[in-house]
């Protein structure tokens, strides 16, 4: 019998069960297609869908509740999205696909502190990625051997502190919904358009915008966006994602 989404979280796939549902947050269509093909052909795993932008990523995880979500490090260099995913969907295993540009002790310390369960090079071999998914579910913690030396605590590091941990303490001031709204404000959408994308009332969106302005001490929407970029709450999308639309909805495929 096919299990419902999320019913087997935290447990290895049982004989005859559908297995672990996997989704991806990545801006590159070709890379997402490759992930989907890999998951489809791997016993014990099945593909749920993908998202290419922050607001659609949160929608996807809220509605599909994947067992595992693969996150492109280029979309979340400050770990804010990771923290929202980890706190909002505690049953979901968050695996970061680390780009070469993010391959540093500071970044790895930041994402692990933000709630990521595993880190794997984005250019890893397919077999190693599927093994990482299984290991992360079994142990709720996995560091690819190629990144292990970057997560080792230096001898002179103060006890209990990891490299880059000072940056990790920068808290996300916005709620999950406010974060989604701000992403869409940054793309130039008005309240009515944001309401349609997020399935909210215009009044609710207006309330979220007011809260965003207050929390960021911003004069107006433009000032809020500028402040968010300056403090790393919003990030510039990776160069190889320019062909994808940040206003997109997530795409699901449970077959």
What layout of secondary structure does this protein have?
Blueprint: E1 20-25, H1 29-40, E2 45-51, H2 54-64, E3 68-72, H3 80-88, E4 93-98, H4 105-114, E5 118-121, H5 126-139, E6 142-143, H6 165-168, H7 176-186, H8 191-198, H9 202-215, H10 221-230, E7 251-252
Parallel strand pairs: 1-2, 1-3, 3-4, 4-5, 5-6
Antiparallel strand pairs: 2-7
Structure keywords:
seven-stranded mixed β-sheet; alpha/beta; globular; 255 residues
Mind explaining what this structure looks like?
It is built from ten helices and seven strands. The longest helix has 14 residues, at 126-139. It is of the alpha/beta class and 255 residues long. Helix content is 40%, strand content 13%. Helix 7 packs across helix 9 (202-215), helix 7 crosses helix 10 (221-230) and helix 8 (191-198) packs across helix 9. Residues 1-16 and 154-169 have low confidence and may be disordered. It has a seven-stranded mixed β-sheet with strand order 6-5-4-3-1-2-7, sandwiched between helices.
What fraction of the residues are assigned to beta strands by DSSP? 5-15%
**Class from helix and strand fractions:** alpha/beta
Order of H and E elements: EHEHEHEHEHEHHHHHE
Q: What gross morphology would you assign? A: globular
The N- and C-terminal alpha carbons lie at a distance of 14 Å
How do the strands line up in the largest sheet?
Answer: 6-5-4-3-1-2-7
Average pLDDT over all residues: 82
- Which regions have little confidence, pLDDT < 50, spanning 5+ residues? 1-16, 154-169
Tell me roughly what share of residues is in helical segments: 40-55%
Counting DSSP E segments of at least 2 residues, the number of strands comes to 7
- Helix segment count? 10
Radius of gyration, whole Å: 18 Å
Q: How can the largest sheet be summarized?
A: 7 strands, mixed
């Amino acid at each position: 019998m096919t299990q419902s989404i999320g019913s087997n979280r935290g447990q290895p796939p049982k004989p005859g069960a559908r297995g672990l549902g996997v989704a991806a947050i990545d801006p590159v269509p070709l890379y997402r297609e490759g992930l989907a093909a890999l998951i489809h052909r791997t016993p014990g795993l099945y593909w749920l869908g993908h998202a290419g932008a922050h607001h659609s990523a949160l929608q996807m995880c809220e509605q599909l509740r994947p067992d595992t979500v693969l996150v492109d490090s280029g979309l979340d260099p400050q770990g804010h999205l990771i923290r929202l995913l980890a706190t909002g969907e505690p049953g979901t295993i968050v695996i970061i696909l680390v780009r070469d540009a993010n391959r540093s002790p500071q970044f790895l310390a930041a994402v692990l502190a933000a709630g990521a369960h595993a880190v794997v090079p984005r250019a890893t071999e397919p077999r190693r990625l599927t093994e990482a998914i299984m290991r992360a579910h079994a142990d709720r913690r996995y560091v690819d051997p190629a990144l292990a030396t970057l997560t080792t605590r230096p001898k002179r590091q103060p006890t209990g502190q990891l490299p880059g941990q000072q940056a990790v303490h920068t808290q996300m001031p916005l709620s999950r919904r406010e974060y989604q709204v701000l992403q869409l404000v940054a793309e130039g959408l008005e309240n009515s358009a944001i309401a349609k994308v997020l399935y909210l009332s215009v009044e609710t969106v207006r309330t979220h915008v007011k809260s965003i302005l207050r929390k960021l001490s911003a004069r107006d929407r433009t000032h809020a966006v500028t402040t968010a970029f300056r403090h790393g709450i919003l990030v510039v999308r990776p160069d190889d994602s320019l062909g994808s639309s940040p206003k997109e909805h997530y795409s699901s495929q449970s077959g």
